[in-house]
Specification:
Length: 199
């Protein structure tokens, strides 16, 4: 059986900032999940902490020679904090998805998180942050689907979990904790399994 080559691209969540152990981050967690359903897998992480959608082009250039079967892209939070217009960020994401698809990869995108649930966001501005996050996610979903990618957590199910449990945030109260990564993994894993089944 083919060993699934899994590439993780994007920002600090793809990289794993906030997790207590490397094993708790997305790449290793997705490899374990695939192996648990009988698919041997290996992972390379091309994600960079602080990355925006504009940085995806470089990551794709680095990832494509490895010929990944599945590429997971987690991006959008830094576009939101830097006030990048949603259509601009989504256009750059769409370009990345298209290049990865052209290279033969199935692409799973985890769109921007809802930053309004971040604990240090003042309550008075949360409606504005929620609106911006919603617009960003919608634009990213459209761009991903238009280029033949797949969307994980399209309904934002992780948002409710993070809003309800502060332990899902790491000590910086921005990035996920290991428990938070476990929640994100539960939303990503089914889409990654389905993508891997196409190889």
């Amino acid at each position: 059986m083919t060993t699934v080559r899994l590439a993780v691209l994007g920002d600090s969540i793809g990289y794993g900032i906030g997790a207590t152990r490397p094993a708790d981050t997305l790449g290793p967690g997705l490899v374990r999940d695939l192996e648990g359903v009988g698919r041997p897998a290996e992972c390379r992480v091309f994600a960079v902490s602080g990355a925006r959608s504009a940085d995806l082009a470089r990551q794709v250039t680095a990832a494509v020679p490895w010929r990944p079967h599945v590429a997971v892209v987690v991006v959008g939070a830094n576009d939101l904090t830097r006030f990048v217009p949603p259509e601009v960020a989504a256009g750059l994401l769409g370009d990345a998805v298209r290049r990865l698809r052209d290279a033969g990869a199935e692409v799973v995108v985890a769109p921007a998180p809802d930053l309004s649930v971040v604990p240090h966001v003042p309550p008075a501005v949360r409606p504005v942050v929620l609106s911006a996050s919603t617009r960003m996610r919608a634009a990213q979903i459209r761009a991903t689907l238009a280029e033949g990618g797949h969307v994980a957590d399209a309904d934002g199910a992780t948002t409710a979990a993070f809003a309800a449990d502060a332990a899902l945030f790491s000590r910086d109260l921005f990035h996920p904790s290991s428990a938070g990564y476990a929640v994100i993994l539960r939303t990503l894993a089914p889409a990654v399994r389905a993508a891997a089944s196409r190889h």
